[in-house]
Amino acid sequence: MTEELDLRGEVCPYTFVKTKLRLEELDSGQDLTILLDDSAATANVSRSLRSEGHEILDLKALSGEVWQIVVKKNEIDLQ
Amino acid sequence: MTSSPYACACPAAQSLPTSFPGSPRWPGGTAQGIEIPWIKFKEIEAARKDLAGAGLTLGPCGPRFRTVTACPGLPVCRRALADSQSFARQIDQKFSGWLLPHKFKATVSACPNACSRPQENEIGFCAAVQPYMEADACMGCGLCVDICREKALVLQDGKPLLDKSRCVLCADCMQSCPTDAWKAERMGYAVYAGGKNGRHPTQGEKIADFVNEEQGMMIIQRCLDFYLQHGKKRERLGDLIRRVGRDEFKAAVLQ
Asked: B129-187, which class in CATH?
């Protein structure tokens, strides 16, 4: 089952802070669906997720300027 | 700038008269130097030695090639496309202090946002990237189309199409792409020449595109040769370019 995180109305950097906090609660390999209402925040969150080693499974615009990111949590090597 | 030069420079300021209003103070100048006011003239040599110990030199003033400025650049700034500080240091080491007809300012910006104002300097470098799309890697999400502030992208048949006449070469599309479908076709510095601020501000004109650091150094060298040969005393580079004509200037500098 996919977890969902609604970040509409949030601004950077809380968008990614809240994304990270939610990802911490998930097991690696689990998916998280994130909703945002700003394209710049969507780009920032997806770039930050990738740079931390997670996998973007899907990214698309929904209706009404809402963006949806589906990310798979990867185990992060903290060495 | 780490804290150590400041710490070392402090002894130079400790002899400052505390009765002087507002002193000692360390205002950052618009030329990005540290200004230390109220050092007594006869103590300048001692202050210079203190500062040299921390790797700081006195900045040139008067009709000279001034200290080169730069934006933060890579790796500090998220938008940066180049290491502007390192290029600025290279220019500074070679040209700073050269005696010329009038003041001469140079700067390096790491992206077209132009934070260090390359169009307002005698020579201004501004990093740029020309993007191209690898359509197979694109999943058609349209995020780059929404991100592009210049409206240079439209979705056509589910893929972004670039209008090069609108593109300012900022690479926002590349940085927003979740699948790295945007790649760099060309990258380098745009070069502006003849700009200045002051009483009669003038925008520098773009004279070259996508030059690397080595080519940039050559352009400065030829520009200074031209300026020394043709410039009148107290004539800024931009005024010289307008007097002799930009075609002649460009022919000499770009060869």
From this structure: alpha beta
Contact A57, B139 (CB under 8 A): no
Nearest to A56 among B142, B176, B178 (CB): B178
Q: B147 at the A interface (CB within 8 A)?
A: yes
> What range does the domain containing A32 cover?
3-72
Torsion of CA A51, B162, B140, A26, to 10 degrees: 20
Q: Are B249 and B242 in contact (CB under 8 A)?
A: no
- B124 and B118 Cβ atoms separated by less than 8 Å: yes
Q: What is the CATH number of the domain that holds A13?
A: 3.30.110.40
Query: A21-74, pLDDT tens digit by residue?
Result: 999 999 999 999 999 999 999 999 999 999 999 999 999 999 878 999 999 999
pLDDT tens sequence across B48-70:
898 888 888 888 989 999 999 99
